[in-house]
Write a structure and sequence with these properties.
single chain, 264 residues, alpha/beta, Rossmann fold, 7-stranded parallel beta sheet, two-stranded parallel ribbon, 8 helices, 46% helix, binds NADP nicotinamide-adenine-dinucleotide phosphate
Amino acid sequence: MTGKDKMGTAVVTGASSGIGAVYADRLAGQGYNLVLVARRADRLEELAEKLGYTYDRKVSVISADLSNDDDVRRVEQAISADDSVTLLVNNAGLGGQQVVATADADAAERMIKVNVVALTRLTRAVLPGLLARNRGAIVNIASVLAFDSSFGGIYSGTKAYVVNFTEALHREVAGTGVKVQVVLPGATRTDFWELAGSDIDQLPKEIVMNADDLVDAALVGLARGEAVTAPALADAAKLDMFLGARQAFYGSLHADKPAPRYAA
Ligand code: NAP
């Protein structure tokens, strides 16, 4: 790797809009070369040209539908074979399908494939290389809805997976030069809402963040080595309290006999 390319290559999924496009911009600004992944090739190409020119970086594009098994494998092959990869941002994702009884089952499956399966497979594709080179990071974009199912169990369930998966991965890589971070965006002004059939303007303005602020904060959290980054959380002690309470709760869930209230 030459001095100019010393940051290596960042792979950003869902880079064609919203949070992913901001990551692409910021990471190019930090000196990463980029591999941009999403379905809309025209938007990726346009962004690649702009970022390549603005930041003098190498930017390539992989047009792929991450709900399609063959496309996911194609991306896996490309990024696992590229030993310049130092960062993977698993950002592609979609919501909607809030009511299970009336959900479009195929759309729900596509959501699970993008939010969960592709994120897992792409992580698995780059992790051995990162560990072998003992450097780099994996950033997984979850959601605050990992902790609240009131907007539907399918999306919330996928994001709870992302949190648990990433926390475990963070423990797995402890002591190596590889960082792992899960980001918990709250309501963020992007196309996501309209695509999910919701109106972000129905929310109070004071709880809606813009994607630039969200990504800038998440990158500060990454640089600090945070496992869990919650950009909107004003009181960081609340996260420690929550994680501590969860651990204590887990510790009380094992016994050799059922609790007395379940006596037949
Ligand atoms: P967005 O503007 O709709 O961006 C979603 C990105 O994912 C797009 O680039 C889209 O690209 C890509 N994508 C969707 N389906 C795909 C597929 N089948 N294959 C490949 N790429 C696909 O929304 P966003 O808010 O930036 O979302 C980014 C992440 O943030 C998601 O994981 C979302 O769950 C999470 N998040 C968002 C919010 C929020 O309020 N906005 C809150 C919490 C978490 P193509 O359409 O070109 O494929």
